[in-house]
């Protein structure tokens, strides 16, 4: 019997182990071991990743077997590609050795991996090992290392690395470590003392098949021999781990790690995988063993596939968006929104929250509000599963709290059944926040020591109400009915009929916590009529109890210039948030919907511009220009001190503040934030031997550069960024526009995007521009402007809003 193997000492030792097992079963069979040099052995200058999963250490052996030159090939199972050549199979696996990894170092101070912090140089050619060692030790430097075990130890002894990572099974089979060795210690090799630490599998997962010796044969050949040396428990581990590798589409060099544990009762597969090659996710799946060999083998394959599926699938966040005020979503909810690839949102969620998502995120409107569901609940659940299964991070954005009459529980159960990873992020509920904004505490000493939350909109398929109004009528606490506006008359009648005092104070709070909030109060017997006369519209809640009367004294929502007004903010993110904050302070509700995004231009040679001889002015016309300029300086590693001889001019207080955030201060800022004023100021302050360098948007107006060149100045115009229209917002823009009191424009590019997205849509909102350049763009786009800020900055814009909206009110 001819057995083929690689020529390395470890490969020979492992082949001798297989040969010895065969001799034990078949003493009369002569055995010949033939060594082969594989491509992976020959090309030590190539990284393991460069070979992909194409059998760098197996192809030559497999060719020899197919040509009949050898009968068997012995491999380290982790070197086997997931797909074997036609006609070949793994006939047997020997009992698994130690599957752990070992940290090996030359110096005692590096003998334990946890002590290795900072710039420790680690040698490994495995992405799996590199990612996991970085998780254990921040700041380590990874360098590629190739070669067999003695070669790697020699490189370590030459102090090319502070430590390397090797397989425990290999070290034990070569005799460097004993099977009963301690978890830490030292060993002698190549005339050198090395320190080692066996890494626990809880922290450092092995490669698929690590520690397993696999014997490859021709199909239907040597079957009796293979059966005699085969270990069934190891085979089931091998099947699970190979199924995992195959399911993720990877090979032995993949950024994947897997550990399988088998006992009499169950099998557990723990796996890690970095789909992006950088960030490892971890899962664990288990199954109860049948005690039947074939069934247990199939379960092993299924577990491996399940592990891969769970790691490749994305995650769903069930997020409570809060009651309407965008400030009432949790910080954790915002973080999840920023991470999401897909956002599935309800009508009750504020449109401003979608501005927190990344530009590439997909938005899906589930459109759930009273009487109008764009998607059925079952369709929403299936959508969440499909998007997560495709590997996406999904944000399910629901008004209020997802687990309070939000059907979040149903979605969580559907995700559980599908094996999808998910997280629930509770939200501020309208149950207590809407009354609070109306000055009604739902508990109060002496008036209500409890509150009861009831849906006023039960499942329409129910034949009878599941609510016991007799019990509700007897309750001394506050009653809060959600989604019950259409049944207000019935609810009041049923409570009174079951003993509730008809004179009990009651309130209806509509659109709670938003600029459109309205509150009417009365007695239980009359609240339905009062609400109807006031034309209260959903969403609304009914509050019943003595606490309602407290709203006459608790009036914390003081009238401010923009109270009750909803204002659309179309500016880019860097401007939108400061503007939104100013609107909030004036009592308004900003609806932030940036219609354009900014993208950095590819700039080359900024360093040459800044260090060449001569005096120069740096001119910034926007915050984005400042930000991209300094980010480019970082990319090119330009020392901030190189700006020492430069003078700086800015347009607008916001641009000046952004400059100051980067540690620089403007030498010149015109009173008016417009190109004409900036050109005039520069002409009055710049000498003709000084260069003027403009850093601004690609689409910027040519007014500034034209005026400067007319006066004979040498001007260098460097586009730092360009804008792109965010077309995915067009449908939502048209929808929210109907409910706006004003629309703000801070740039010509935002005006053009708005005009193209609304396509001539008529709306009642007032249009307010930050300055004449923006207004001119609006005029060209056939958008009528109601007000231009007198001062061309955010302060001037908010003053213009107050003027036009307050004047319109009066």
UniProtKB/TrEMBL annotation:
It catalyses: 4 porphobilinogen + H2O = hydroxymethylbilane + 4 NH4(+). One of its GO terms (biological process) is methylation. Residues 315-527 form the Tetrapyrrole methylase domain. Pathway: Porphyrin-containing compound metabolism; protoporphyrin-IX biosynthesis; coproporphyrinogen-III from 5-aminolevulinate: step 2/4. Residues 1-221 form the Porphobilinogen deaminase N-terminal domain. GO terms for molecular function: hydroxymethylbilane synthase activity; uroporphyrin-III C-methyltransferase activity; uroporphyrinogen-III synthase activity. Residues 578-798 form the Tetrapyrrole biosynthesis uroporphyrinogen III synthase domain. This is Hydroxymethylbilane synthase. The gene is cobA.
